[in-house]
Amino acid sequence: MATRQGDRRTALRHQIEFILDNGRDEIREVIIKTGPASPGEDQFNRSMADAIRRRSLAVSPRDVLPPEIDSASDQGGPKARMAASASGRRGAMDLSLTATLAPQSAEPSRSRAAIGRLRAASLRSMRSVIDSEIIQRNLSENAGGPSDRSGHLEPRTFWASGSFLLRIREDDLMRLYESDLAGELEGVFPNRRIATPPHIVTKKIPSLVEDNKVSAWGVRSIGALSAWGAFGARGRGVKIGLLDTGVDPDHPDLKGKIAAWAEFDADGAMIPGSKAHDSDQHGTHCAGIMVGGNASGRWIGVAPDARIAAALVLDGARGGTDAQVLAGIDWAIEQKVDVINMSLGGLTWGPDAPSTYTSAILNALQVGIPVVTAIGNEGSQTTGSPGNDLLAFAVGATDSVNRVAGFSGGRTQVIRQSPYFPEDMLPLVYSKPDVTAPGVAIYSSIPGGTWEYFNGTSMAAPHVAGAIAILLSATDIKARVEPDLRASVLQDLMTGAAEELGEAGKDHRFGFGRVDVLRAIGFAKDLGY
Questions:
Q1: CA–CA gap between residue 208 and residue 186 (Å, rounded)
Q2: What is the Cα–Cα distance from 390 to 487, expressed in whole angstroms?
Q3: 183, 8 in Cβ contact below 8 A?
Q4: What is the mean pLDDT of residues 86-104?
């Protein structure tokens, strides 16, 4: 435990020094992360990290398929049968996330993981830190929030990440590290500005793209059209969380498909009375890729029968903040979405990935929600956060002839110091993206009832979120796999069924390959899902 505390203090000092070295404002706006947001977070983190570290040795996407459910067994529930199957088979099966997580995930306290319990545990973990003198003083001096019954000021909290927003004096930042609070903190991060991804509009459309008259080329190339025909699976009953610039609910391809709406300000506060709208074009384009219909004369959405819970976390030309995105993740989890899509992020330099989003993504995974992210548009050997987070399901972009797009990011990442992982697992080295999907000359909806061709990894990620919606509607995964293993099963199936296009195994450009939802459904059914 002493070593673990030492690791946390060292990581905390480096984070605070980084914030102090970047900027000269007397008051700094930071996100303070407290202890584990759930009782099993440490073990879950260790198991997930171990699986990701070992799967880097895979030489084929098939190596990371999830274990078979032993349908012949009548002992225990689906997780117990899955764990038994995983422990009885060695080699390639050990490289899946599910096989690694299943044995420790079978504990009763974890199998009953619920959003309410996780939220309550997270808020409890923040309580003593929020009530401390140094935090209360800065809340009072620098525009704190409302008071609780005891008179303590309340900051803007983000339960999924176990964090809160604070405007703090520069000299008090270092005092945080020097105080007794340091033992209760897992991180201090700048509340970054996140730019709205630019619209890279394709003017010269390749003939291979224009020749697709029935659907957008990406819908066909990932096997969505075939999955509709073979299994009648179009995403019915699935809800996708879209954290973006908003959405035009009146677009003819999206009308009636917006199941929930919220808008957040730069502090992560929900704006009351907000009506669904798009502050840009980006969110509506991503929404069309996921659930759009064929109002234009061609199908544009991967899962046209799915619905969207949309949160505005990027405000048009002004962009957004980490606080807005963290608030959006909280909201999406509370909406009980089945998958979250975040086609957003900020470029990070160097191989170290900030852990601002790690706990938020972890808690989404624990309740069965994969978090699909764009890897970024700055090209080879670059990535953006949160796409480069260890636990994010990161997506790069390909074109209509299966070449990786020149703008698509990807690189080796490393975690050298971390409050999340024990010293014996560090440095933890991993590669991003995880998979690729169509992201060049993608035809989809924009506000005002029209359509446009955009380029970007922002366009690739919604193909994967839509494919997960199809996979859920074509299989019994929601019924047969309990929530704390569901996200790993979905990610293993999407990864394991990928069309390998680059080097053997996982590489910086294609990840494990381009997604193929028809093949993923086939593997899922063959493995008992």
A1: 50
A2: 14
A3: yes
A4: 66
Active-site annotation holds for 253: no
Helices (H), 22-156: 41-55, 78-87, 97-105, 108-111, 115-130, 133-141
CA dihedral for 242, 247, 249, 251, sign (positive or negative): negative
Element (H, E) at 32: strand 27-34
How far apart are the C-alpha atoms of 41 and 237, rounded to whole Å? 30
Q: Which H, E and C letters describe 432-492, residue by residue?
A: ECCEEEECCCEEEEECCCEEEEEECHHHHHHHHHHHHHHHHHHCCHHHHCCHHHHHHHHHH
Q: How many residues does the chain have?
A: 529
- Cα–Cα distance, 150 to 504 (Å, whole number): 60
Beta-ladder partners of 94: none
> How many C-beta atoms lie closer than 10 Å to residue 267's C-beta?
17
Catalytic-residue membership of 458? yes
- Cβ-in-10-Å burial (0-12, 13-18, 19+) of 149 comes to exposed
Q: Which CATH architecture has domain 200-526?
A: 3-Layer(aba) Sandwich (3.40)
Q: What angle separates helix 2-21 from helix 170-178, to the nearest 10 degrees?
A: 170
pLDDT tens, residue by residue, 156-188: 999 999 999 999 999 999 888 888 888 888 889
Q: What is the pTM of this model?
A: 0.94
Q: Where are the alpha helices (DSSP H) in 131-267?
A: 133-141, 170-178, 207-210, 217-221, 224-231
Q: Residues 70, 84: contact at Cβ < 8 Å? A: yes
Exposed, middle or buried by CB within 10 Å (0-12, 13-18, 19+), for 495?
A: buried
pLDDT digits (tens, 9 = 90+) for 330-366: 999 999 999 999 999 998 877 788 889 998 998 999 8
- What pairs with residue 346 in β-bridges? 385
**Where does the pLDDT of residue 146 fall: very low under 50, low under 70, confident under 90, or very high at 90 and above?**
low
Taking residue 270's Cβ as centre, other Cβ atoms within 10 Å add up to: 14
Beta bridge partners of 166: 30
* H-helix or E-strand spanning residue 261: strand 258-263
Give me 315's structure tokens.
């405000």
Q: Which of the following is catalytic: 70, 244, 265, 278?
A: 244
Q: Which of 105, 296, 444, 458 is catalytic?
A: 458
pLDDT tens per residue, range 219-270 = 999 999 999 999 999 999 999 999 999 999 999 999 999 999 999 999 999 9
CA distance 209 to 42: 47
Nearest to 12 by CA among 180, 176, 169: 176
Q: Annotated catalytic residue: which of 85, 122, 279, 282?
A: 282
